[in-house]
Design a protein that fits this description.
Elements (H helix, E strand, L loop, with lengths): L1 H15 L9 E5 L7 E4 L2 E5 L7 H22 L2
Parallel strand pairs: 1-3
Antiparallel strand pairs: 2-3
Helix pairs in contact: 1-2
Length: 79
């Protein structure tokens, strides 16, 4: 899972232009409401336990949430 997060974080960084931070978000598998595949909350990605992170939908979902992580991390650098 760590290698997947690292590679998707590099992809999200390359796509968005945000630099890759020295830390990675914590990814937790939880049971979310049916309408959510994942949520990003303050450095933590909550991934619905029904989502396979290695599937296409799972990877797309993780890239989306990793983009929120990059936005959050880089906005905090300017504070």
């Amino acid at each position: 899972m760590e290698a997947l997060i690292t590679s998707l974080l590099l992809f999200a960084s390359g796509t968005t232009g945000y630099p890759v931070p020295s830390i990675e978000p914590d990814v937790r598998f939880v049971q979310l409401e049916e309408r959510y595949d994942a949520l990003y909350i303050g450095g933590v990605i909550l991934l619905n336990s029904d989502v396979d992170p290695f599937s296409l939908i799972g990877e797309v979902t993780l890239v989306h949430e990793l983009t929120h992580f990059l936005q959050d991390y880089n906005s905090n650098l300017s504070l």
